[in-house]
Amino acid sequence: MKRFGVKTMQAEDEIAAVGMAIGASFGGAVGVTGTSGPGVCLKSEAIGLAVMTELPLVVIDVQRGGPSTGLPTKTEQADLLQAMFGRNGECPVAILAPQSPADCFRMTFEAVRIAIRFMTPVFLLSDGYIANGAEPWPIPRLDELPKITVTHPTGPNATSTDKLHENGTGEAGKFLPYKRDEFLVRPWAIPGTPGLEHRIGGIEKEDGTGNVNYEAANHEHMVHTRANKVANIALTIPDLTVGGANEGDLLVLGWGGTYGAIATAVERATRKDLKVGHAHLRYLNPMPKNTGEVLKRFKKVLIPELNLGQLLLLIRAKYLVDAVGLNKVQGKPFLVSEIEAKIEQMLAMS
Amino acid sequence: MSATALPTLTPKDLATDQEVRWCPGCGDYSILAQMKTALAALGTPREKMVFVSGIGCSSRFPYYMNTYGFHTIHGRAPTFATGLRLARPDLQVWMITGDGDGLSIGGNHLMHCIRRNIDIKIILFNNEIYGLTKGQFSPTSRLGTKTKSSPQGSIDNPIRPLSLAISAEATFVARTVDIDVQHLRMTLTRAAAHKGIAFVEVYQNCKIFNDDVFAYATDKSVKADSILYLEHGKPMIFGKDRNKGIRLNGLHPEVVELGNGIGVDDLMIHDEKVESPALAYALSRFVYDAKDPKSFPECVGIYRAVEHPTYEEQLDAQVESVIKAKGRGKVQDLFKAEDIWVVE
Lengths: 350, 344
Hints:
The complex is a heterodimer.
Chain A: H1 14-26, E1 31-35, H2 37-53, E2 57-65, E3 71-75, H3 80-85, E4 94-96, H4 103-118, E5 121-127, H5 128-132, E6 163-164, E7 168-169, E8 199-201, H6 216-231, E9 242-244, E10 248-255, H7 259-271, E11 276-281, E12 283-285, H8 291-296, E13 298-305, H9 310-319, E14 324-327, H10 336-348
Parallel strand pairs in A: 1-2, 2-5, 4-5, 10-11, 10-13, 13-14
Antiparallel strand pairs in A: 2-3, 4-12, 6-7, 9-11
Helix pairs in contact in A: 1-2, 7-10
Chain B: H1 28-40, E1 49-53, E2 68-71, H2 77-87, E3 92-98, H3 99-103, H4 107-115, E4 121-126, H5 161-167, E5 172-177, H6 181-193, E6 198-203, H7 215-218, H8 223-226, E7 227-229, E8 237-238, E9 244-249, E10 252-257, H9 278-284, E11 298-305, H10 311-326, H11 331-335
Parallel strand pairs in B: 1-2, 1-3, 3-4, 4-6, 5-6, 7-11
Antiparallel strand pairs in B: 5-11, 8-9, 9-10
């Protein structure tokens, strides 16, 4: 990695690792840290700080059997709700999940793109099955990949017409570390830049200036703003695509490493002329903007997961659909036959 | 030599417009003032300075310095500061912590940061109490300290910050006192100049929750007998009449009175640069006992100042050596590194 300008550090523990990654991001690098389930627990407080200070960060979680030490060498996908909610307060982060070994390249690229563009931590949820798996990968051409542009401000950004929440207007010639663009993203001003000296921290701050601020209306504004910023990521991600039947009786919806088993089960169903479709979420927070519409195109929704129903909970809550789960927590991936059987069972029910 | 002088900073340039939230009489005000004065004279551009802190009264410090700053989470400042240094070895990074932040939750990260010899200046404000949370005992509180969380007196054997730092082989170790303004300023200046980890303990008074715990170190009528100022190359002498000193008796330092056959030549000469940290460690164990006329003094000054390769320069050297041996990497070549085949 070193010859590509990548510095790596073996930290003393998971907390130190994420702290170092965030410190590096503050300095203008892209901080990346990787772990498995229990390590995510450890990193949570620091991830909250990265959310509050709006710094880019990529956290890779290769999920395994839990809880606690669990089954370190067995696959599971039970950290989705931890990624969504595992921090104090309203603390939104982007969540991406590759669906196969080859997809890891594309989704990691996306994680970095989103982390930088939206100044946010991004979870990349992989799992033991993907990590130990292999598949042919069509090698991309570097010049055909989307460009990730990075800009750091070099001068003041305040204008006298800047409306600072609670505190009046901005002053031309000053730098506002929390002045936001059209996606509600703040500038990535890095230490070493003359004239932009500012302080960031975990205490709630006034929008725009970034000064410590406890006022009621400001806090509510900031909580909504941070949530809306992450929601705006949906404006830059592709729509959810459907394999098999485009609409019909049953949608099988999955995420992560269950892709292969679901895809094959649905393919077998469509060969029997059953009106079954397959959609696989690679963006879990926010979800693609057409997700609700896709769900509505089918009479029933089945969500096979290697957990007790985590995407199920999110889909039911967000879209008010009576989705049903197929849940396996044995440290093993789904067999195609298990999903086939459930598909048949669900189609047989009225 | 260039004809144009570097623009010089004044302490005022380093002040922010934020209202300082420390209590009136807090020792932190003095540290802030001397930090601004010391930094202004360094010649380092303001934009290159970064203050990283944890949580506590000490850790509000970055908000009052008009430099870059990062107020992080309890005990974890060493990790953020380390990551920043690895990414940006061009920056001058200061880390502000306290006895609670640095030695309770933060003890582990502090130790690792020190042993790695990361080029960070760590200033630990030791007031022997948890101030921000209103008065619980801390890892440095003396045995028997009565607080809200130790109404019958603390039974937690305290740790000495300097002993910990020296055990972790900190390459620069110093102790200073909050209101000893000249000494504090000198110490901060020396810490700034040090290449490698610089660990400074500041005896700091918390007026509200632990007032006067270091009175023996600041009270002019007492401190000559309770404090020994370390000076490199000079014999270790203290006392109102400069008639007491420290002598090595085998492996053990002892307090002696000059006269009766004991002369200045018998005393320990302080050496900042000696490679072994053993003597510095021994000095860090001195605790002043007002009730004992033969008490050890507490040593204030620079215990150790040695130069070892820093972590960052070793990392950069490794990066350079790989690039030299294998050339700068091209990502497209990385794609073709493993078995590939062509699909017609």
